[in-house]
Structures are given as structure tokens and as C-alpha cells.
Amino acid sequence: MPRLLPLGDAAWTVEFGDAIDPALHARVMGFARALEEAALPAVVESVPTFRSCTVHFDPLAEGADVLGDRLLELAASAPEAAIAGRRWRIPVLFGGEAGPDLAALAANCALTEEAVVARLCATAFRVYMLGFMPGFPYMGGLPGELAMPRLATPRKTVPARSLAVTGTLCAIYPFASPGGWRLLGRTPLNVFDTRQSSPALFAPGDEVMWQAVDSEAFARMEAADAQGLLAREAFLVAPEAPWPR
Fold first, then answer.
1. What is the CATH number that goes with domain 3-77?
2. What stretch of H or E contains 49?
3. Nearest 5°: CA angle at 208, between 18 and 244?
4. In 3-state terms, what secondary structure has residue 68?
5. Is the confidence at residue 62, as pLDDT, over 70?
6. Predicted TM-score of the model (pTM)
7. Strand, helix or coil at 87?
8. In whole angstroms, what is the distance from residue 126 CA to residue 106 CA?
9. Which residues fall within 8 angstroms of residue 4, CB to CB, at 6 or more apart?
10. How far apart are CA 10 and CA 56, in angstroms?
């Protein structure tokens, strides 16, 4: 059963479970869709996550308890909504300066670096949510044998566009920032580009696969992207194309 949790005096969090799971995420997205369709006047914004959805509201427009009851009704009746997002194949330069933690992760898993990269590139990752910073995609699906905890001491600066993992999650840092995830590589693509009508490259429901590239290809694409000459559409995979399940 969904749980209703207060978040200050102007937000409720509707919690559906405690796992990172496609079926659970489908319930969250179904609720978010039902909430949008209900167009409740007091609601200001909704923020869906892996397993919950926070609903920000105007406390002066409607009593919080009344709204809370209505949210629970929607949560109980809303059908699941497994969003069929876009499919991406994103180039990544793995290892070396671009991925300083690849060697340590490979050693921890008793694999070669090449074997780790092969597993990463054979996996379809699902974008569950954006958060932490604009355009930061939290992606599930990292094979269990590659799981490692985050660094004991976070880096003061993680380079922009770094591909990083922790536990069974994968992400790309849109901007340079502190961070404790394990860095395995970098993509030449800007994943949050204010030159675009929709700045964030990814959206919840998208699926992503990596394609290993060498340093020359990386530098060429990075330069093209900086000049606005690298079309995002070139990295989309057609819905009918083969895709791992």
C-alpha cells in the first residue's frame, strides 16, 4: 500500500516501496500521470523518483489533509505506466585519465578491464530519474558482478561528462562537481546543453547503451559537440532495432 509522508508544510511524498525496480517505477509514473490528468488546483509541482513521488502544493489553496487523502486515492487507483522512452547508444572513452577507477573495479571483480567494458557495453541501462544537478541521470541495470560501493573519500572535482557507477547504478555527471561515484570513462556528448530546446539529453523511461570509442574518435566528437555540430539524433536507436532484454 502507498504511504503518505509529510515533507514540510507544503509538500507530501507518496511512497510506493523501497526498491529500484521497473515495476515499482511504473507505479510511480502511473501516479504522476494520474496526478497530472487530475489537475488538482492546489498542486504546484510533482517530482517522481525511483520509488516515490513528492507533490509540492500551495498550503493556502487547500487543506493539506484533504489533499493528502486525494493523493492516496489516486495512488491506489492509478494504473501502472511503464514509459516507453527513447533508446540511445552513447560513445564513451573508457579507462585511463577518462576512467581512473576502471582498473580498481576490474581488479575487485577479478576481471580484465576489457571484460568490464564488454559487460558495460552489452547492458541496456534504464533512466529512472533526473536529480542531484540538472540533467544528472540515475540509471539502473548495472550487472551485479560489477557492483562496488562509492569511494570512501569523494573527489573534490569530477570532470564533466564522466561515466560513473556505484552499487548497481550508473550515471553521467553533466557538469564538473564533487562526487564519490567510481569513474569508468567519459562521453564526448554534452548531456545538459542549454543550446537545445530540451537541455537534458535523457528523460525518465529512456534506455541507454554505451559504445566504446578510442581517444581520437573521442577528441573528434568532443570538438564537434563544442561547436554545436554533433546532432543528438545521430545517437538515437530506432524502436524496431535489436535491443537487449
1. 3.30.1360.40
2. none
3. 90
4. helix
5. no
6. 0.86
7. strand
8. 23
9. 12, 13, 14, 15, 68, 71, 72
10. 6
CA distance 124 to 219: 25
Residues 149-164: tens digit of each pLDDT: 999 999 999 999 999 9
Provide DSSP, 179-212: E-SEEEEE-SS-SB-TTSSS-BS--TT-EEEEEE
At 12-53, the pLDDT tens digits run 999 999 888 888 888 998 999 899 999 999 999 998 888 999
pLDDT of 189 reads 96
Domain boundaries, the chain: 3-77, 87-237
The SS3 call for residue 139 is strand
Q: Between residues 121 and 22, which one has the greater pLDDT?
A: 121
Q: Long-range pairs for 53-56 at CB < 8 Å and ≥24 separation?
A: 53/13, 53/14, 53/16, 53/28, 54/7, 54/11, 54/12, 54/13, 54/14, 55/11, 55/12, 55/13, 55/14, 56/10, 56/11
One CATH from 2.60.40.10, 2.60.120.970, 2.40.100.10, 3.40.50.150 for 87-237: 2.40.100.10
**Site of grid cell 564526448:** 188
Compute the distance between CA of residue 7 and CA of residue 64 in angstroms, rounded to an integer: 11
Distance in angstroms (rounded) separating the CA atoms of residues 155 and 151? 8
CA distance 63 to 57: 10
Per-residue CA distances from 150 to 1, 179, 181 (Å):
32, 9, 5
Say if residue 190's pLDDT is above 80: yes
Q: Which residue has the higher pLDDT, 241 or 212?
A: 212
